[in-house]
Amino acid sequence: MDWLYTLSGFVVGAIVGLTGVGGGSLMTPLLVLLFGIHPATAVGTDLLYAAITKSGGTVVHAQKGHVDWRITKLLALGSIPAAILTIWTLSHLPKQSAEVTHIISMSLGVALLLTAAAIIFRSKLQRYAMSHAEDSAHTRYQAPITIAVGALLGVLVTVSSVGAGALGVAVLFFLYPKLPAIRVVGSDVAHAVPLTLVAGLGHWMIGSVDWSLLGSLLLGSLPGIWLGSHASAKVPDHFLRPILATMLVLVGGKLIAL
User: What pTM did the predictor assign?
Assistant: First the structure.
């Protein structure tokens, strides 16, 4: 079974490299639906997987000046306390119970549908935000809204491991329309590292991390991301994203129906 985990890690890593969409929206449902891993273990393992893989991306973005640390800090002010509170809540629920399975499956399904919507409507959101960029209300409430968004992402990511990628980027495009796209992506990736690390360590403390599974996934995903990133220039973005969004809608609906 380990080689299948490694193969899955490679495929997901390649898709992430091609599209830039967070691995959680692909890896976690794959582990739950295809391999039958308990949703809590799938989420906890994937969170640490994301923390490790996105650390390298953060270093690269930071070296190139692609991270707006003020935005990252505002997001973290909301997300880290929210993640800790969510872990505390999960720790008081019966482990591996039907209740926990239902909560995580529902949250994962909703998060996937939101991610699909973010992929489909990102350009429209960005255009709308650009047309209202000069509104005083848009700039006046940027900081508190960013913290609130961070809190929402903290809960969503901790429960489902999904949301720190496409969903976070879409919201930042809307809130900061004048910020170059590469800095939006870099800031989102930088914020994802402490969030997924705190949430992942929290899941480990409550017994929801499979370290052997984590190692097998990383073994495949790291070369997959490298190859996907190099091939991304040769594959049309407008072809890949609708397919990916459709797949996330189907998988999200399946998880909600469980």
Answer: 0.83
Determine the Cα–Cα distance for residues 258 and 80; give it in Å rounded to an integer: 29
The residues, any chain, with a CB within 8 Å of residue 165's CB and separated by 6 or more, are 20, 21, 22, 23, 24, 25, 115, 188, 192
Does residue 244 contact residue 19 with C-beta atoms inside 8 Å? yes
DSSP H helical ranges for the chain: 2-19, 24-33, 39-63, 69-91, 98-131, 136-140, 142-160, 166-175, 181-205, 211-231, 237-257
Mean pLDDT lowest among 3-12, 75-84, 109-118:
109-118
Pick from 194, 207, 242: nearest CA to 44 = 207
Contact present, 252 and 120 (Cβ < 8 Å): no
pLDDT tens sequence across 51-94 = 888 887 788 778 888 889 999 999 999 999 999 999 999 888 87
Question: What is the C-alpha separation between 185 and 191, in angstroms, rounded?
Answer: 10
- Angstrom distance (rounded) from CA 44 to CA 108: 13
DSSP structure class, residue 38: -
